[in-house]
Design goal:
This protein is α/β, with parallel strands linked by helices and about 650 residues long. It has 22 helices and 23 strands. The chain has a six-stranded antiparallel beta sheet. Strands 16-15-14-17-18 form a five-stranded parallel beta sheet, with helices on one face. Strand 12 and strand 13 form a beta hairpin. Helix 3 runs antiparallel to helix 4, helix 5 runs parallel beside helix 8 and helix 17 runs parallel beside helix 22.
Amino acid sequence: MQLDEQMKCWNQAAVKVLDIRRIVMGRGAQLSSYSLPANGFIYTIRGSAQLQLDGQAHQAERFYMLHGAKGSLLDIQANADFEYILLYYRAFLAFPRFRKKMLLAQPEVAPFSLQYGFTPSSPLRLLRYLSEMEKAWAQSTHLDLLHTKSLFYQFIHELMVQLSAQEVQTELADPVKQTIRYIQNHYREQVTLDLLAEQFNYSSRHLSMRFKRKTGYSPIDYLIQTRIGKARDLLVRSDAKLGDIAAEVGYSDVYYFSRIFKKHVGVSPSLYQKKMRHEGQAEDRALHLSGSSIGWTLKSRYIDYDNHYQYKDGGSTPMKSKKTSASMIMIALLSLTMLLAACSSGTAATRSAGESTGTNSNSSNQAVTSETGSQVNKDNETRTVSTIKGDVIVPANPKRVVVLYLQGDVVALGVKPIATSDVYDGAAYKSELEGVNSLGTWFEPNPEAVIDLNPDLIIVPSEETYNILKNIAPTVYIPYEKMTTEERLHGIASIFGKEKEAEVLINDLNSKVEESKKTLADAGILDKTISIIEGGLKGMVVVESKQFGRGSQAVYEYLEMKAPKVVQDKIDVVSEAAGSTISMEVLPEYVGDYLFRSVYDGADNLTDNPIWSSIPAVKEGRLIEIDFDFFYYSDIYSINKQLDFVVDKLLSAPRAR
């Protein structure tokens, strides 16, 4: 960016001074890898130091000016007593017309994010403004803060004069380098595309495009590759349990970690560990495969994108969220690719989607309602759908539907979407989505991929996904966690004008439930107790609510079967997903006449465990193993299939006395 263009930006900028401070470092003192929380100026008052800004070296003597962008990494090595003033500010182009014109002309430019360092020709003028700002800032009255802002503009004017006179070269901070560095330092934490974009003052879409152009990967793909690479190293070089490794690389849900590891590496973590050690690729010493437990302590109601379990009430199942094989070598290659790859990209045309700001007359924007209605506008072949986000105008007959997580209900209504979030292989409706595009995990869809599909309707299950996609096409937010199965189905049906079809589906389900209950009663099973568990050798999660999933909805809500008293007492009073982790020693007290165990790839083999084998339901053949994938979903399509499975397995098991 040329200086005259910078000046244009400053003329159109709204500015807020965030902080001014004077810092003194003693000889030999160090500041390492400090991430600038905002754009900032560093002005040396006395002494000298070696500075590095994003790896770029600067020899700072007295009266040296350095400007860095938000998110840049600063390193300081003081050669002598080193004193400097640090000024943080935030600035943005205030007028939409100029901002649009600027970004269209130079889409690669992020104004105010330039990096440069120089020795001013008139250093005391700059020092005067900074010192006066420091004094005014310390007073903190409204008048003094206004004075600070006026002094800041005078400081910028003087800075531009001296930059222009000395023809100082400036360069734009590389957001791709910054993003890679941030991911490598923070992969253990919850990282989203929006967080990365906000960190470096870019839009999510622009950052994703630049990152993919240089690396061939989206930022989230790179994050996953980084995590998997770290996990592979830990599996080979440590005796840590699988749950601990998952947590160390940013996945608090060990099951999800196992699934995503297998997806990217080709084998489960346990098999990978055995294979690598068997082949003698472990270094330093031989290691023994450690046992792993998939048990965990459950908490009621939380949403955490990296935990991938979303507990909810209203008759729904816990939701689990957070492309090639990855390794540490791959991570290094990706970083190298970022530096060397030629820039080549296409542009995706975006479609704007109007959305009214009106609200449903029966609810406010803040309230959560399970009622979703629609009204057909015959003149222009649209339908107005009332949601908790206001009225949304959608096509009367949408042809290109994108849906996240709620696929089963959509499929049950006879609608085949063009794209959905990932569906587990064992899902009841998996075959119905043959050939449908996959958008990755439900909680973090790629906006560019959605734009490329040119959808005419988007259906999302969370406010976060609504905010990500709402500007691409008409977007309807279904707050499924506050709805029963019937309420959710009616809400989705109203979007397509399929209310009658929804009523038929619900009536058919109710009829199946009554027939199933009669069949089980005639067989002397309906009054028997059932327990549902999930876990391993170290402990078991005992399901204690109708909303947990793993068959709890089919068994406890629809069939109205009971659990052992110690569990049923909790089911009777809990209105949200709940369960407890218990030790294997006391597990027999929680097991009923029939036992359902949720199993998954890598689950512990309990065959040789004496406590497990002594449980009557296990010993007498009334243990029914259920597939996690199949019993994960709570849509009406899946519930139908789950009821068939439960009834069939109960009838074929030995009768409990």
